[in-house]
Backbone:
């Protein structure tokens, strides 16, 4: 069975499982293939065929007259005989292949049953799959391929033979029926090839929109913004005419088509003539890759400076005339105006303390980052799927989207930083910086810089002046 990656590069959730040579659909989706135990049945099938043929010749051979007329009626004895021939392998099995996608709120058991699988067989297949894959993680839209073997039994015309789940763009989980009716499951991984690419452009609005026009994939843009946001205030630092360059990995299938993105190896911005360079490096005394300035100082901080890209600061921290209540009131956060649906990122690693509606805040999330600091995000349009209380998030993870829920006059993000439970001015909170490489660690990093620069010079580039038009 050959595993082929999604040629369209659309991800695992929309990819049908490719047809294998021994299951090539014909006659309305039916196909023939040898049984897995064909070596056990070949001789037996040949003997049965020979015996039947010899009997017919002995009874209706030359000189015995015309063959008898067979009535066009159902013969249970004949049906039983056919069943025996099918069981023994004398009749080649036929297969039906079907592809379905998991619906909203659905589960694998319901999908298999809806597609015609016997519930007992479906349970056996799922039990086998569960040994190597958590079926609760199957997302809406995931492609599932089913193979049924046809039977001559009118009461049970087909039996489940194989289930293939597109678990990821480069991984399929395959459950196959064995000769005793149970199922075994295994992983099949695509052989993806990795290549590097760089994209650069000039900013005329936001980094996100300009990078998209420069041909950078969305996943890479989000990662680059997360990396740069340690040092860049995307609301105040960026000006029209500033530039960017990102060097990143992409995975390709056998047809040379990109199917998923890898790591950002280098990210650079030139802001008002000042250049910022960040390199990906894993220190030998650590298993965690980080991004460092050329001097060996890590870019990582406890909290990002801004948890949103392409927004404008519309209201600062302090007393203000409330736009709805009509009187002066303390504003214990800052507001970023942005388009409805703009992604909102977690400002730092942490655990979700609260998620849901929260009075005038509307749809609201609060994240606890450590014993001292928490951040809060309000008036959201919606939350990223799968988030809940006590769930861990990483810095830069998308947690929701800009909206106007609660006491709000238009789409914006209300952002708070809390220190020991008390709201602080997010623009004035001083966050400690991380490590700075020295000695042997710095020498190793300088080697990484040299290698990255060589690869960067050799990588293809798609340079675009990113116009807002």
Residues:
């Amino acid at each position: 069975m050959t595993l082929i990656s999604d040629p369209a590069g659309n991800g695992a959730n929309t990819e049908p499982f490719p047809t294998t040579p021994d299951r090539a659909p014909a006659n309305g989706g039916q196909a023939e293939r040898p049984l897995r135990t064909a070596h056990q049945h070949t001789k037996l099938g040949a003997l049965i065929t020979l015996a039947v043929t010899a009997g017919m010749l002995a009874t209706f051979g030359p000189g015995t007259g015309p063959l008898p007329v067979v009535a066009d009626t159902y013969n249970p004895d004949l049906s039983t005989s056919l069943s025996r021939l099918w069981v023994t392998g004398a009749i080649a099995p036929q297969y039906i292949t079907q592809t379905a996608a998991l619906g909203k709120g659905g589960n694998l058991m319901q999908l298999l049953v809806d597609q015609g699988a016997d519930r007992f067989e479906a349970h056996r297949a799922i039990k086998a799959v569960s040994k190597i894959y958590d079926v609760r993680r199957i997302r809406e839209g995931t492609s599932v391929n089913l193979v049924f073997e046809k039977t001559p039994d009118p009461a049970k015309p087909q039996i489940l033979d194989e289930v293939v789940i597109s678990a990821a763009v480069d991984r399929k989980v395959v459950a196959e029926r064995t000769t005793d009716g149970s199922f075994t499951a295994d992983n099949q991984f695509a052989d993806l090839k990795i290549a590097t690419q760089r994209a650069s452009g000039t900013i005329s609005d936001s980094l996100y929109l300009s990078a998209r026009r420069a041909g950078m994939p969305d996943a890479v843009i989000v990662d680059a913004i997360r990396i740069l946001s340690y040092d860049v205030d995307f609301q105040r630092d960026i000006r029209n005419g500033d530039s960017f360059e990102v060097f990143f990995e992409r995975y390709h299938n056998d047809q040379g088509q990109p199917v998923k993105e890898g790591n950002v190896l280098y990210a650079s911005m030139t802001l008002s003539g000042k250049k910022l360079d960040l390199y990906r490096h894993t220190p030998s005394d650590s298993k965690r890759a980080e991004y460092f300035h050329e001097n060996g100082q890590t870019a990582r901080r406890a909290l990002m400076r801004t948890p949103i890209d392409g927004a404008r600061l519309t209201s600062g921290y302090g007393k203000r005339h409330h736009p709805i209540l009509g009187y002066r009131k303390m504003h214990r956060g800052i507001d970023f105006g942005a388009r409805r649906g703009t992604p909102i990122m977690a400002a730092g690693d942490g655990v979700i303390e609260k998620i849901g509606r929260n009075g005038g805040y509307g749809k609201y999330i609060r994240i606890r980052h450590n014993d001292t600091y928490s951040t809060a995000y309000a008036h959201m349009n919606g939350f990223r799927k799968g988030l809940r209380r006590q769930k861990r998030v990483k810095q830069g993870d998308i947690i929701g989207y800009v909206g106007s829920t609660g006491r709000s006059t238009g789409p914006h993000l209300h952002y708070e930083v809390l220190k020991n439970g008390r709201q602080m001015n997010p623009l004035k909170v001083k966050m400690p910086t991380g490590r700075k490489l020295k000695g042997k660690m710095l020498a190793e990093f300088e080697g990484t810089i040299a290698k990255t620069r060589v690869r960067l010079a050799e990588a293809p580039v798609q340079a675009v002046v990113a116009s807002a038009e």
Q: What stands out?
A: DSSP finds seven helices and 24 strands in the chain. The longest helix spans residues 38-59. The mean pLDDT is 79.
